[in-house]
Amino acid sequence: MLRGEEMKGVMKLIITMGGIALICCAILLVLNYGQFGPLEKEQPITNAGTLTWINQTIPAQHIALQLQMPYDNIVINATVPETPNTVVLYKGTVSDDDLNHLRKFESPNLMKDKRSLPSETEAPALAARALELFGGLPNDAVLASIFRSEAYEQKSSGEITARYPKWISVSYNREINGMILTGGDRDGISVDLGENGELLCIRKLWRTIENTGQTVPVIPAQAAIDKMQKGETIHKLQSSNDLFIDSIRLGYYERKKDIRESILEPVWIFKSTTITGVELLVYARQFANFTATPTYGKAPLTVTFTDTSDASPTKWNWDFGDGTTSTVQNPQHTYTTAGSYNVSLRAWNDLGSDTMEKAGYITVRNPASPIASFTATPTSGNAPLAVKFTDLSANGPLAWEWSFFVCDHCNYSRSRLL
Amino acid sequence: MGISSVPSGATIYLDNVYQGVTPQSLENIPFGSHVVKLTLGNYQDWSDNVELTAASPTASVNAVLKPVPPTYSITVVESFRSNMSDLRPLGTEVGDTVASTLNSAGWVQKFYHKDYFVTEQDFGILDAPLNQGLDESILHYHFGHGSKDRGLVLVKPNEIGDIPLVPRDFLQPIQVANKWDYKNKWVIFDACELVGDPRWRNALVTSHGILGFQTPKTPDSQLPSRFFQYAMNEDRTVGDAWIQATQDLYYKTGIIAAYRFDNKDQLDRDHLPGHGEMAPDEYPDDYSTYYWQWEC
Fold first, then answer.
1. Residue of A332, A202, A220, A328 whose CA lies nearest to A266
2. Can you tell me the distance from the alpha carbon of A59 to that of A57, in angstroms, rounded to the nearest whole number?
3. Quick one: CA dihedral A99, A105, A109, A115, positive or negative?
4. B46 in contact with A at a CB cutoff of 8 Å?
5. Do A37 and B170 lie within an 8 Å CB cutoff?
6. How far apart, in whole angstroms, are the C-alpha atoms of residue A406 and residue B168?
7. Which stretches within chain B are classed as H helix?
8. Which CA distances in Å does B103 have to A24, B70, B113?
């Protein structure tokens, strides 16, 4: 049985710029007709923002009007740091050793039960000391988490009857210019410590990173949220809850380590700092671009479009602005009707898409030359006289040039039409 | 009549009457034709006719028992209308990897259901003594969406077309309490959360362990192949293989993987069939489980 559901999401944006507070409020009303399971409810995404604080509720996109999705809402309530419009690209190279051995050391005692473990305050210093034998703690490492791994016997009521400490792990992430590295196989170090701080296991992936010297534009956080709403995240979650996002920041994405050499790509990272494992990544690089030739001419006008996107796209979707599209990389298209056309190219690579739209990029005029004609009103009166001229030319001119001059002995002049 | 078997320890039935386990010497059997039947867990039943006469009053039975090929089943729920939660084609990639790896290792597939063909019955909710969903297979692999509050997400076709699908229902631990009581040993929940719920304990009758995750997770089509690589190529225990595979693939993601075994003996000793020993089912059941979670 279908029933109508009305869902209201409230979107608030508070943006502070140089001490001036700008407050915008908007009400977003979304109708949602659906058939719901017994435990289901409506599903908005919510977002919050830099010195900008954003608290925004965005409903998850409903392709049709009747569905429920496993995670109902993405609720974003976070501060977006002031972000540059461009980032420098770095290249990461995985060494032979990193490719084959994530585990740099593993003790036979790893899986055994321990009587006691170092405390969370003792662990980082012990981990740093253990790492001295393995190249030391790199300068660009930042402490990410301290996790106590403990097995236990548990009754179905949840009551824990016996505990078996296993290890305490200290893990480090890697940052470049304050941007964290994330992704398919991300750089980082994890040190597992056991009884009396015994080193149990070291796992480490640390690419060789070099600056490419190339700077690329990135999309703002809000554009990333729009992409997220369309499902355009690099990974999905196999979750079935509302997702609460309280951290938004720009980072670099590292591809899987079996790709030995790859560019670290800018991504927006939406994550929860309280529920570990909740992290959605949206590709942040603006890379789609194109040229066309010719961009102006008489109908029928055949235009050759050339994809000039960087970031190695593998899929293209052109919209020529006259209701036709193409998926060819460098298409040819013939415009048959006069007019001014917007052209857009959406290009995809392995991490996502980017769209470049050029408004009024192609101008097509009628094949016949225009025939100039106009009227004016009023045509006489006392100075100063305001006159309205109206173009009545035939064959759809695309540009006009009016000339006004004093003419004592003639009744009219002809305007020149392009 | 002397009866032995390889391996030994098989239950002996003489004319359908229990006679202990192999090796065994049975005395005072009347002359005539008798049916000897041997049964042993994870081995195919063996039987033969033995004729005892005044001319040949003794007989010797030496049976070589053939192992039963291990069985598995798969459920994949991946097609959703919302492009934010649609998991295609990763679920199919995961399911196909499980099927091809186990088929080439000689395992027998009981069923491989996808999307709305995946029903509660696949998870053994019917209280039939035999032949009920995953209860029929030693290993069950499920891929899909999950939630600690709601359980595992099942779907139905929407009214307009076949797919994409809408969530229909949620499988909760209570629905399978005391139901996994036939052949199943391990269930993998390749989905978010789920395993943290202590009430899954009630499902572990003949089942030994549930392997899965404590937190939300992202799909990775390499997860099953990595798990089988550790469990089969390296003959690691089932639990150990799960730790290694999840730590490899979700390194530094903050994702926490976990397993819940009926007891520590099963965790320490359980290997996939053909790759080492397996601990016995817990009897009597002590209402408690051995749970371990680790940050990948």
1. A220
2. 6
3. negative
4. no
5. yes
6. 81
7. 90-104, 223-228, 238-249, 264-269
8. 60, 10, 16
Give me the helices (H) in B18-167, please. 90-104
Structure tokens at B113: 């259901």
CA distances for A85 relative to A88, A223, A271, angstroms: 11, 13, 21
Question: What is the mean pLDDT for each group of 10 consecutive residues in chain A (418 residues)?
Answer: 32 26 28 29 41 50 33 77 90 92 92 94 96 93 95 93 96 95 94 96 96 96 87 88 86 94 96 89 97 94 97 97 97 95 97 96 88 89 90 81 73 50
Contact call for residues B234 and B248 (beta carbons, < 8 A): no
List chain A domain ranges. Answer: 3-82+218-249+268-277, 95-206, 290-365, 368-418
Domains of chain B (ranges; CATH) run 2-64 (2.60.40.1120), 71-295 (3.40.50)
What would the two tokens of residue A267 be?
Answer: 């991504």
Q: Which of A147, A236, A275 lies at the smallest CB-CB distance from B295?
A: A147
Q: Residue B270: what pLDDT?
A: 97
Q: How far apart are CA A113 and CA B292, in angstroms?
A: 11
- Are the beta carbons of A240 and B252 separated by less than 8 Å? no
Asked if the Cβ–Cβ distance from A153 to B289 is below 8 Å, we say yes
CB contact under 8 A, A236 and B87: yes
Binning chain B into helix, strand and coil, the percentages to the nearest 5 are 20, 35, 45
What is the pTM assigned to this prediction?
0.78
What does chain A come to in residues? 418
Interface of B with A in 86-115 (CB under 8 A): 86-87, 90
Q: Does the pLDDT value for residue B46 go beyond 50?
A: yes
Best mutation target, B218, B243, B285, to test chain A (most A CBs within 10 A)? B218
Please report, to the nearest 10 degrees, the dihedral formed by the alpha carbons of residues B286, B289, B290, B295 taken in order: -170
- Nearest Cα residue to A300 out of A343, A342, A268, A332: A332
Query: How confident is the model at residue A132, as a pLDDT?
Result: 94
Round to whole Å and give the CA distance between A82 and A65. Answer: 37
Fold of A290-365: Immunoglobulin-like (2.60.40)
Subunit contact A69:B167, Cβ cutoff 8 A: yes
Contact B6, B63 (CB under 8 A): yes
E strands, A184-278, in order: 188-193, 199-205, 208-217, 243-245, 247-254, 261-271
Pick A237's closest partner by Cβ from B82, B199, B216.
B216
Write out the E strands in chain B: 2-6, 11-14, 17-21, 24-25, 32-39, 46-52, 60-64, 71-76, 108-114, 139-143, 146-147, 151-157, 165-171, 186-190, 209-213, 256-261, 288-295
Residue showing tokens 């789920």: B194
- pLDDT tens-digit series, residues B104-142: 999 999 999 999 899 889 999 886 666 689 999 999 999
A241·B216 Cβ contact <8 A: yes
CA distance A158 to chain B (A): 5
